[in-house]
Amino acid sequence: MHVITLDSETDFDGWRKAARALALNGVDPRGVTWTVRGNEPELFEAEPDTSLEETPGTFNVPAKFVELAKIAILHRNPERFALLYRLLWRLRSNHDLLEIATDPDVAEIGAMAKAVRRDEHKMHAFVRFREVGRESKSHFVAWFEPEHHIVELAAPFFARRFADMPWSILTPDLCAHWDGHAVAITPGVAKSEAPTEDRLEEVWRSYYASIFNPARLKVKAMQNEMPKKYWRNLPEASLIKPLIAEAERTTAAMVANAPTEPHKAQKRVEEDMPRKAASSSDSIAALRSEAADCRACPLWKNATQTVFGEGPSRAHIMLVGEQPGDKEDLAGKPFVGPAGQMLDRALEEAGIDRTKVYVTNAVKHFKFVPRGKIRLHQKPNTPEIKACRQWYERELASIKPDLVVAMGATAAQSVFGKITPINKSRGRLIETGEGTRALVTVHPSYLLRLPDEHARAREYERFVDDLKIAARFLRKAAHAA
Q: What is the pLDDT of residue 271?
């Protein structure tokens, strides 16, 4: 009997290495016992199995099996390791086994993988963050109880969706944490360590009650999509039963009420904002004051305030981002959130002092879509970029920089007045025809959204290299002067 001890419940690499050695040594699945370190029965609390010889050779299995195994191994079924090895053993002699949907092993593995994916979807849908602390010291924490071992699988989704806020998701198995740069995984905790109700949940409950439509209520369908076991972690859960109970009476009242004439749409009449020609006599302070009342596009209606540029009035470098984020919208200053922290680090590595750089955005108002109490970024469209370009032109005329660095596609479109591909333009100095040069690179938030650690490190180095081009240009300009 061969006893294989894996390092964790999700140790796919350990399982794959052991399964390969077992198969090459011709070990029948019935002669293998699989355990996880820390969970071994007393009988197996011994040194790892060293009886397997390093047998040379190789064999192939369908790529579909590898992808299936990576997901199915996250299931809580204690027999999953043995089941996967049995399927691997059989695939060596029947390469098309996975195409036989009625095969018991194939059907069971498929069902396990489907259950894991369903649990991942539920985690994405039913995690509710609670705010701990206030303003700059706030952190968002959620409690979730997954059916399967999906925390590491689901965490990248939250890193992408909530890239601009620090968060932690606590579970009994593992905990995932995001600091704006990378996801960290720590051991699980007890539910007692999760935060209680926060100050914004009453707002969320009021919103949920206002969008609840009793005429479209289908209780069974709702419970299939939102099983009761998840209700205890949802702030709106306390409203569900009363709303369902009230639905029949409310629907009857809606039907009984006589129809009314719809209100005619009242179109808001707004005067077009006159565009002032760019002038070198405009001071940054005067421009900032004027832009505070900008109504050139509809973005001002939902934003907290105009986020204007900041920096020396005669800076040699002008950095242009895309638009302010959530943190910037609240603070009224550009690049103060996670993307700003990454930018500061990259500038320092490139040898550029941020205090000597003028930093601004192509679009001065935060564009977002609300998701509960979270505001998700939305990319500005061309009319919004064009409406805001006057401010960039007037900043440019006032600052008179030697070099403009456009960070991201929106910034490049504003700087050049047309859609400009990043990859085709980055890494070289470009004449703008306005007495200055431009350099195109990515936006720091792009780096934050990359889920793969190696890709993020590689792209960050490219970003720093682009900024080093700007640093070298300034040194040459200073030497020539």
A: 44
**What is the sign of the dihedral through the CA atoms of 95, 99, 100 and 105?**
positive
Longest dimension (CA), the chain: 86
Mean pLDDT confidence for 142-161? 92
Strands 317-321 and 403-407: parallel
Amino acid identity, position 431 = E
Question: Residue 272 above 50 pLDDT?
Answer: no
Tokens of 268: 């808001």
Q: Does the predicted model carry a pTM greater than 0.70?
A: no
Structural element, H or E, at residue 144: none
Return the minimum-mean-pLDDT range out of 183-197, 223-237, 358-372. Answer: 223-237
Q: CA 12 to CA 8: how far, in whole Å?
A: 9
Query: Do 126 and 234 contact (CB within 8 A), yes or no?
Result: yes
Of the ranges 24-28, 256-260, 365-369, 470-474, which one carries the lowest mean pLDDT score? 256-260
Task: Kindly tell me the burial class for residue 434, based on how many C-beta atoms sit within 10 Å of its own C-beta (0-12, 13-18, 19 or more).
Answer: middle
pLDDT at 197: 60
Higher-scoring residue by pLDDT: 467, 480: 467
- Token pair of 111 as six digits: 């069902």
What the block records as the tokens of 373 is: 């109490």
Catalogue all structural domains in the chain, each as residue range(s) with its CATH number: 2-121 (no CATH), 128-193 (no CATH), 209-251 (no CATH), 284-480 (3.40.470.10)
DSSP 304: S
pLDDT tens digit sequence for 93-107: 999 999 998 999 999
Residue 281 confidence (pLDDT) above 80: no
Please tell me the number of Cα atoms within 13 Å of 143 on its side-chain side: 16
Adjacent-strand bridge partners of 2: 32
For residue 270, the model assigns a pLDDT of: 43
Buried b (16+ CB within 10 A) or exposed e, 155-170: bbebbeebbbbbbbbb
**In Å, how far from its chain's centre is CA 84?**
32
**In the prediction, which pLDDT does 452 show?**
83
DSSP codes joined into one string, 115-137:
HHHHHHHHHHHH---EEES-GGG
Query: Which element (helix H / strand E) includes 140?
Result: strand 139-143
Radius of gyration for the chain, computed over Cα atoms and rounded to the nearest angstrom: 29
Residue 205 scores a pLDDT above 60: no
Residue 274: its pLDDT value, please? 45
DSSP state of 259: P
Sign of the torsion angle spanned by Cα atoms 219, 225, 226, 230: positive
DSSP code at position 233 = G
The C-alpha torsion from 31 through 35 and 40 to 43, rounded to 10°, is 0
Identify whether the C-beta of residue 4 lies closer than 8 Å to the C-beta of residue 35.
yes
Question: Is 86 within 8 Å of 97 (Cβ atoms)?
Answer: no
